[in-house]
């Protein structure tokens, strides 16, 4: 298998980045599930691991996107119907959006909210003014 992509096949580097990110996303879900029942101090440690893995995913996604821009990409199979091509491109774009949005925006908002600070989204009104109001958010 070639290291670089061709117009017919994804290369070894692209595949390695893809599957590493997939495994790390599964790790993220596992860490989040395990953290639910932990006491606060251990939960904090699990959150630190969760953030570390998230930053790693972000770095790998940047590397993956850079690799994609520097290499040819295989064409979709000719047998796909037009709506399937649109869905394939749309879901691919959505996955990239989530790979970048989760660690950059969502993590920042959730960390701010959990720490008791006011959360502002695009300068909209505060989502919660005080911690006591969290049950209503």
Helix-strand blueprint:
Blueprint: H1 12-35, H2 40-70, H3 82-114
Helix pairs in contact: 1-2, 2-3
Can you walk me through this structure?
There is one protein chain. With 137 residues, the protein is mostly helical. Helices cover 64% and strands 0% of the residues. The longest helix has 33 residues, at 82-114.
Tell me the series of helices and strands, N- to C-terminal. HHH
Q: Multimeric state of these chains?
A: single chain
Distance between the termini: 51 Å
Largest sheet: none
| Sequence stretches where pLDDT stays below 50 over 5 or more residues | 119-137
Q: Beta fraction of the residues? A: under 5%
Helix percent band: 55-70%
- What is the 3D form? elongated
Instruction: Please provide the count of β strands.
Output: 0
Structure annotation, total helices: 3
- Classification by helices and strands: mainly alpha
What is the mean predicted local confidence, pLDDT? Answer: 82
Overall radius of gyration: 19 Å
Short précis:
This protein has helices at residues 12-35, 40-70, 82-114. With 137 residues, it is mainly alpha-helical.
Summary tags:
single chain
């Amino acid at each position: 298998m070639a290291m670089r992509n061709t117009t017919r096949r994804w290369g070894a580097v692209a595949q390695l980045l893809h599957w590493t990110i997939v495994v790390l996303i599964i790790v993220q879900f596992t860490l989040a599930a395990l953290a639910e029942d932990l006491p606060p101090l251990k939960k904090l440690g699990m959150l630190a691991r969760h953030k570390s893995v998230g930053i790693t995913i972000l770095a790998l996604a940047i590397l993956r996107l850079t690799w994609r821009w520097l290499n040819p990409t295989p064409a979709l199979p000719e047998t796909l119907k037009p709506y399937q091509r649109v869905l394939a491109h749309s879901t691919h774009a959505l996955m990239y959006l989530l790979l970048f949005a989760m660690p950059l925006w969502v993590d920042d908002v959730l960390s701010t909210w959990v720490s008791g600070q006011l959360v502002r989204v695009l300068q909209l009104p505060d989502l919660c003014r005080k911690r006591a109001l969290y049950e209503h958010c």
